[in-house]
């Protein structure tokens, strides 16, 4: 087997190389489309679920922080504010009662520390007695914001008054008004509690959101399956209808070819024989006229025979393909063009593949006869491989004028032969290339697989 030599595209044919794909112009199988739909639905479900989890995480944490800020405001207003004035004024028992209430509140571990700040940065009260009276800690922006009347929160990895507490702490600063003076109340919340609250809220949001998406997909899959089955049935009906149409067309072409053969061809052949027999009985000066008539009748018979071949081609399977293509070259030989044909043994191929090769050769030879002004044509038909699969290679080369500078695409002028030729080859999963022949002329190379999956 020979392999196609590399060649450069001629001017005006750039990009004409077309690589067919199996099923390139065939409708996709409904089962494949259904699998693609399910895969896409699953991917969308995963993406939306991830987005839902991320969004629910943010919502849950924002709600947990807001709840912590409200808890700090309640502690400042209901727990510290009533007892702090007496504790600061030195009223007997007030400081002890405040410490007792604060420790009771902190006993569950949700609040780890409470601190009351003056605007100057002095700590006037703390659940940690060692911090009371310290004024060497610079006021933070959050503490100053609380002095201004705002409640703010911040996750602090290393709080300045954390004491023995380790790990991140949630600091909440709330304004505290006592005896006409504005203080900043600071409460430290264990971050694990914020995580627990966020987890509880996530547990409510995520099942609802993702469950709705899963339910939607469960409802869609039977609908998509039903649509896929309906499409499959319609596709089968269309295929059967097309098959019946092709069979009817084949029968009609066979009938027309038989009628032409048994009618006009036989009649014209009889006229030719009668004229030949009549020639001897005519004066010599009439012989030339009779010879021209006989030649015209025989030419008409040959034209009708070629028309019959076009309408109903001969057997194209196996060796019949090379012989049929060789018969198509008779018009070229009649015009004095020498055809050098190399048609080796060909394997069995599908009728569609044989028909595509036959029509490709027919179009190529017709173009040579009309446009090439060639003296020689080389036609090669041989077995090869395409994408690792058995195939047949057809090459038609000539020594004519080559391709026009404007290219081969003349669809705008109503010439669709080359475009249809390309579509036929690509539709079978093959390749088609136009290139310039070394030494002048043009080369058409088509590679068509022996079989093609529908």
From TrEMBL:
Domain Histidine kinase: from-to ranges: 357-452
Transcription regulation found in the keyword field: no
Region listing for Disordered, in residue ranges: 1-27
MF terms (GO), sorted A to Z: phosphorelay sensor kinase activity; protein dimerization activity
Keywords, in A-Z order: Cell membrane, Kinase, Membrane, Transferase, Transmembrane, Transmembrane helix, Two-component regulatory system
Gene3D superfamilies to which the protein is assigned, alphabetical: 1.20.5.1930, Histidine kinase-like ATPase, C-terminal domain
InterPro entries with a match to the protein in the record: HATPase_C_sf (IPR036890), HATPase_dom (IPR003594), His_kinase_dom (IPR005467), Sensor_HK_TwoCompSys (IPR050482), Sig_transdc_His_kin_sub3_dim/P (IPR011712)
Keyword Transmembrane: yes
GO cellular component, one term: plasma membrane
Localisation: Cell membrane
Protein name listed in UniProt: Histidine kinase domain-containing protein
The species this protein was found in: Geodermatophilus sabuli
